[in-house]
Specification:
The chain is α/β, with parallel strands linked by helices. It contains 17 helices and 14 strands. It folds into 2 domains: 193 residues, Aspartate Aminotransferase, domain 1 (Alpha-Beta Complex), CATH 3.90.1150; 246 residues, 3-Layer(aba) Sandwich (Aspartate Aminotransferase, domain 2), CATH 3.40.640.10. The protein binds pyridoxal-5'-phosphate (PLP).
Length: 458
């Protein structure tokens, strides 16, 4: 008997097809825009110079001569590719040097380098966890974390973003599941840029005997005096069991790393399928990452970390003064607050976000657009991000363009969400009432829901 169902149907009939078609006709699709040069504070993009506020190049190291030289030296020495997995034929001294450097930077016993950050999450979660275990994830965690959880076939329990009361309740429930329990969170959340309340999370994990893993993708090279990330900033390095980071942001390259106890890292080397059954990163990527790590670990590192954070505060202040609703800084227990390099403007409606994005693009700024499921439904954001190498003059020019675009946009399409409005979705902490927006963040409490939410469609 022939099946009547075509597996290609989902490609031809998915829910965003119409929206995508209309957006293409109007040249409003903010994705796959073509760069014509390196990712710098200003870039050549589709025939025009534009201010780049849509990268993860937080330290601006992609153009640094030492990082480029690191890539060239590795290319000269090892050629273009290693043509196999690290396990069989793709490990070099660059990998080993990077692993030592990360273990030292994070203050862990050991570290293991993967080909990408996505694979690092997949390879750690998919191996450490098994079908009898429970994994607890913040619903704002990155898609690669959810993919790793699903790969592991552990029981997935998600809690609403940043809600410690929900985490506590979930830990209580997980204690009855009968297996080991791991909590996994982003240190800095990739879309909203808020910082996880790690002291409270680690306290809860300790109370319930759960392990804790923190993804430092957006915090490495940014937060903490050594730039080791959110765990360092919040003083919980000794209370976190596994740390993950990627080379694709501050380190201006491509690759990923997991750091933790030596026996666990050794286990990953011989049991992690996303580590063993994929090709090693290309030598140039490793050489560039190693050079970037050396810069971060030199006296220059703290200057760069301070500069990117200063630029983030500058842009945050400027956008707020223009009347945009910008995601609020994260308030820490000691009363200080942190603005991370991710400075998102809340728009709400998807179509308005695309229109505003296009107006900014035409005005000479490139930013990222985050739509559901990267953010809650009706929680569209323009995700702005800064580099240490932006100067205030360039940011002032960007703010001038933002001001002009806002004026014209609101005259035509009505008001954008205003500064100082209700708390932005997904950013509450325990003890605060849940806002309507928070209630709409996709609930990932069943694998089917998590499965839907991990996709990143337009
Ligand atoms: C929080 C987080 N974790 C993991 C990753 C995956 O890293 P990579 O791009 O190196 O695969 C990303 C990438 O965007 C991320 O934002």
């Amino acid at each position: 008997m022939r099946t009547s169902i075509d597996v290609f149907a989902k490609a031809r009939e998915h829910e965003r097809l119409e929206q995508l078609r209309a957006a293409r006709e109007l040249d409003l699709v903010p994705y796959f825009r073509v760069l014509e040069g390196p990712t710098m504070p200003e870039v050549e993009m589709e025939g025009r110079r534009r201010i780049m506020l849509g990268s993860n190049n937080y330290l601006g190291l992609t153009g640094d001569p030492r990082v480029r030289q690191g890539a060239l030296d590795a290319l000269d020495r090892y050629g273009t590719g290693l043509t196999g997995s690290r396990f069989l034929n793709g490990t070099t001294d660059l990998h080993l040097e990077l692993e030592d450097a990360f273990a030292e930077w994070f203050g862990t016993e050991a570290a293991i380098v993967f080909t990408t950050g996505h694979q690092a999450n997949l390879g750690a979660l998919g191996t450490i966890l098994g079908p009898g275990d429970t994994v607890i994830a913040d619903s704002g965690d990155h898609a690669s974390i959810l993919d790793g959880c699903l790969l592991s076939r552990a029981k997935l329990r998600a809690f609403r973003h940043g809600r410690l009361d929900r985490l506590e309740h979930t830990l209580e429930k997980a204690a009855g599941d009968g297996g080991g329990v791991l909590v996994v969170v982003d240190g800095v959340f990739s879309m909203e840029g808020d910082v996880a309340p790690l002291p409270q999370i680690s306290e809860l994990c300790e109370r319930f005997g759960a392990r804790l893993m923190v993804d430092e993708a957006h915090a490495l090279g940014v937060l903490g005096a050594r730039g080791a990330g959110s765990c360092e900033l919040l003083g919980v390095e000794d209370r976190v069991d596994l740390r993950m980071a990627t080379f694709s942001k501050s380190l201006a390259s491509c690759g990923g790393v997991i750091a933790g106890p030596a026996d666990v890292i050794e286990f990953l080397r011989i049991a992690s399928r996303p580590f063993m059954f994929t090709a090693s990163g290309v030598p140039a990527a490793l050489g560039a990452a190693l050079a970037a790590v050396r810069i971060c670990r030199s006296l220059e590192g703290p200057e760069l970390f301070a500069r990117v954070l200063d630029n983030a505060s500058y842009l945050h202040r400027g956008l707020t003064q223009l009347g945009f609703r910008v995601v609020e800084p994260t308030r820490l227990a000691d009363g200080t607050s942190v603005v991370t390099p991710v400075v998102p403007v809340v728009v709400g409606d998807d179509w308005k976000a695309a229109l505003l994005w296009k107006a900014l693009y035409d005005g000479g700024i490139y930013v990222n657009v985050a739509l559901h499921p990267a953010v809650p439904p009706s929680g569209a954001l323009l995700r702005n991000s800064v580099m240490a190498t932006h100067d205030h003059r360039t940011l002032d020019r960007a703010l001038q363009i933002f001001a002009e675009v806002k004026r014209a946009f609101e005259a035509e399409h009505g008001p954008l969400p205003a500064a100082g409005g209700a708390p932005v979705s997904g950013l509450s902490r325990a003890g605060r009432a849940v806002t309507r927006d928070e209630n709409r963040r996709p609930d990932l409490s069943t694998p089917a829901q998590a499965d839907r939410a991990r996709n990143f469609p337009l």
